[in-house]
Each structure stands twice: as structure tokens, then as C-alpha cells.
Backbone:
């Protein structure tokens, strides 16, 4: 398990979002993983199906809207509003605007998000659903901005 510690300098405790942003800065220095992602649009809804191999850490984007996050199968360690949780699927989380997750897969895991959208393309859905982030490692559709690296089990 990955553990990040912070000093109590000036009595300020970082928010979960600040912790995830800091983790993203550090993770961005390492070889990156491109998760297999499928996209579905139906009746004003958008579903992202994301497969992660065991031992992989993925930092997501900041979401603008409420949505569902479903751990379908496998065990993940995920940042939530209530702290870091170890979750074995199936388990449904309800996410608020401003959510940005770090997800570490202890086992192979299948996770899905469900969004209400007006968009009908992945690119338009990303624009509608996530905040721009210059530090983001992924283009729309979970495609790496840089050459993916092989992750061995």
C-alpha cells in the first residue's frame, strides 16, 4: 500500500484534493499506465468502463458534476471525501463536483462511472464533465499524453 505523510506545519492539514494533487505531481515523474477504457452513450447518459491491472495507480481528473463511481470487481484503494478506503467490488460511490480520485488496484479491477450528459462524443463529454488541468497525464478517453510504459504483474 502507498502511504503519503504530511507534516503539521502551521497547523494546516491538507485536504484530500490537495493530497491527490501532490500525489499526481510525484506519480507524473514515473512511467505511466494507460488503462483499457470503453465508452458508452445512451439516452443522455455516458458510461466509462475502466479496466486496471493489479499494482497500478491512476490519478483521475477533477469532475464538474455529480456522478456514480462503481467498483464492479476487484479490490482498490481509493481516495474519497471520507478519506482513503480499501474497497472490494461490487460497491457504488456517489461523487460530488470537485471530486478527484487516486485509485490503486490491489487486484485486477473493473470500475465504471455514470454521468448525465448532453454530449455524444468522448471529447465533448470530457469538456462537459472535467475541469481543465495542465498537470493532467491523460487526454480525453484515458489516452496517455505521453508514450505508455509496460506494467508487469
Residues:
Amino acid at each position: 500500500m502507498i502511504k503519503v505523510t504530511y507534516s503539521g506545519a502551521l497547523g494546516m492539514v491538507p485536504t484530500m484534493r490537495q493530497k491527490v494533487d501532490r500525489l499526481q505531481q510525484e506519480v507524473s515523474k514515473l512511467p505511466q499506465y494507460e488503462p483499457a477504457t470503453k465508452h458508452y452513450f445512451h439516452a443522455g447518459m455516458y458510461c466509462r468502463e475502466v479496466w486496471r491491472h493489479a499494482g497500478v495507480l491512476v490519478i483521475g481528473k477533477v469532475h464538474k458534476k455529480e456522478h456514480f463511481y462503481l467498483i464492479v470487481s476487484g479490490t482498490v484503494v481509493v481516495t474519497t471525501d471520507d478519506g482513503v478506503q480499501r474497497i472490494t467490488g461490487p460497491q457504488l460511490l456517489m461523487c460530488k463536483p470537485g471530486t478527484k480520485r487516486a485509485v490503486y488496484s490491489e487486484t485486477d479491477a473493473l470500475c465504471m462511472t455514470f454521468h448525465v450528459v448532453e454530449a455524444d462524443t468522448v471529447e465533448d463529454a470530457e469538456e462537459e464533465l472535467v475541469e481543465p488541468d495542465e498537470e493532467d497525464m491523460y487526454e480525453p478517453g484515458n489516452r496517455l499524453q505521453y508514450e505508455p510504459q509496460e506494467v508487469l504483474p
